[in-house]
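Handoff note, outgoing to incoming analyst
You'll be picking up this chain. Sequence as last confirmed:
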Amino acid sequence: MYCIPLFHFIFLSFSISLFHQFDPAMEPPSRPKSRIAQTLSRLISCSRIRSKKPQEDLQRCDSHHSDEEDANQEEEESCARAAMEAFVAKLFASVSAAKAAYAELQLAQIPYNRDAIRSADQAVVDQLKALSDLKQRYANQQIDSSPPHETLMLGKIQEHQSLVKTYEITMKQMQAEIDAKEARIASLQNHLLKSVEIERKMNASGSISILDGIGFSDVSHNDFALVLHYLLKSVRGFVKLLIREMESANWDIDAAADAIHHDVVFKKSDDRAFAIESFVCREIFSGFTSPGFGDEIHEHDRRRFFFDQFRVLRSVSAINFAKQSPNSLFGKFLKSKYLEVVHPKMESSFSGNLYQKEMVDSGEFPETDFFKAFAEMGRRLWLLHSLSLSFECHVSVFQVRRNSKFSQVYMESVTDELVSGEVLRVAFTVVPGFKVGQTVVQSQVYLSRLN
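Most recent structure output, in case you need it:
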């Protein structure tokens, strides 16, 4: 019988225990473990447990500590976020309140209200101080709001209240503008009714007999506008006659309009007449402010002299007066203006000769329909010129430059196709504007989208 060494026995028992651990089905059913093997197996198991337990305990402690730190960090971030939201709400509320206070300050100025201005001014100063305080708190990182949710809600409520107040002030301002515009519309309607009545009288009488009762000391700016309107009716009648003559002579009206005002896009083909009218007005109003349209007049009382000219010519025939007094200021003016407006090539194409031009150049005035229309236009122009020189105040003429922005103060459109909210530009001036003292008589312009 062989004797097995103790070390071999221990190693064998350890091997058997490991074998049983991994494959229990291979355990011998009839051989019980020895006490030494059992003890050794328990010791190995305890050593394994002891070797694992400190590491597991350390991992559980570290995990518990990390969870607490994450929770604390999340809570701090949440509190900081809530405080910042409350701070921003207070900031927005202060900005809205400052805006409302400034709007109230503007409202109190028109009409002027001293007490309301003081109150609104103080409110603006208070809100600016509040904004400055918020800026300092932010710079010093003192944005704690306790409790944040209440501060946030109050800030939003105050912001909404300020917005509502701003809207109410804006509505008051808009209502005041509407009232002012309605008053302006009523005034213009009244002025229009008067103008229509004056025009009706003018058309009924065929002359400006409505001015017969006006004396030298009674002339006014309204009389100037009335005579200007009287003149422009004759100008447009002459322009229509001129265009008919052009069409009869096979003129290219588009080319003629483009030669006067280059690269203008006309909305309608009939609008080309405005280019012809602008040419006529440019020629006849040349030198308008000079006495005698350039001729020197050495009159002791110039105002009285020209008012007498106005009074004499307002009810006579232009042709008859020019024939009777060819060397008068009006006779010389009529001759010079005809030679300026009607070019020799134009007259030659209309009548086939220069007979009419030669007559006018020699001091005679033909009885043709074309010249009669021109002479009547010249008479009305001389009336306007004489009236302007009889004023005590100075009268000046102005033209609007091309591509200028449309202004309702100094201009009126010759067409009715104005688009609200659209920025329109001046293509050319049809009728010049006038400044009679401090009163502006609007120029008439053609508006177009220029190329």
